[in-house]
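Now for our specimen.

. . .
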Amino acid sequence: MGGPQEPAPQWRQDRARWKQAYDILRGQLERGEYKTGFPIPSLAQLEQQFPDLARNTIRKAVDRLEREGFVRAEVGVGTFVRPSDEWEPTGD
C-alpha cells in the first residue's frame, strides 16, 4: 500500500511533480490499495512515501483527489476514501 519501504518515484521533468504524486495516489485508490471509508495516509506519512516532495506539493495532489471526489477530508480526523461511484476524475 505505498509507503517508505517502496523506492521513491523517479520524477519526470515534463510533468509537474504534484500531478505525478496525484497519479500515483489515484492509481493506488483505483487498485483498491486504500479501501472505501478508510483513511489514506496522513500528510506526514505521505512525506515518507514521497521524501523528495514538499508537504505543499503533496497537499496539492491530495486536494485534487478531494475535488474529484476520490477522498473527503475531515478536519482533525483524516482524509477518507469515498465510494468509487462518487469519483469524478477530470481526465487531466
